[in-house]
Design goal:
Number of domains: 1
Mean pLDDT: 91
Structural class: alpha+beta
CATH class: Alpha Beta
Distance between the termini: 11 Å
CATH superfamily: PPM-type phosphatase domain
CATH topology: Phosphatase 2c, domain 1
Shape: globular
Radius of gyration: 17 Å
Helix content: 25-40%
CATH architecture: 4-Layer Sandwich
Low-confidence stretches: 147-153
Strand content: 25-35%
Number of strands: 13
Number of helices: 5
Amino acid sequence: MTARYLSAGHTATGKIRRHNEDAILVREDAGLWVVADGLGGHAAGDYASALIIERLSTLPRNENIHDFMEAIEDSLQQINTDLRAAALARRVDVIASTVVMLLHSDDFVLCGWVGDSRLYCFEEGRFRQLTRDHVHGESAEVTQLAPHTPHAGAGVLTRAIGAEDHLFIDWVVAGSRPGTQFLLCSDGLNKEVSDHELADACRDQREPQELLAHLFDLALARQARDNISAVIVRLQDS
């Protein structure tokens, strides 16, 4: 594949949490970028997000983006099964993770997600969220996973890898016009930095690494209550 993009990624523990349960993947060689946000506490959350990144980092990529998407879905389905088995073996309620992914092809890009990790798109001055949080009610400061209690209070995740026996992944298609910029992030970023601030930062036309540093400066200057992870991908002419 010929790289037609610039990208950068970073993850930080934040100010409150003792451990980082997020994990990121930047595979420019395969046109794949991933942010995973582990759930279930230290060791369990770490294991879930790391397993996603480990498996997706080794998937082969051919020119057919649909084949690659199917391979990713198969891998995540197997991870879902493995996390369910791991939770049973450890005698814990759940070992799970959210995930958001961007796949690039020359004609379009695919965005897939499970949970409340997000993907934003900035194109021709317009900033919008492509994903839709799998959360019941308004997001709280700390999102809890309770898939069997759909009428629970605000901030309850309704979907995550490892949460249910059957995994459902949502996908959307976006354009691949040069100049378009994508931001993938765990909820640790968007709970500290508003969508309005994210949009303003994207309008400044910084390079991905510089923009990433700016967003982390904003988040870490505040409470930084959760782990923070982000990946930025900017499409450009070949």
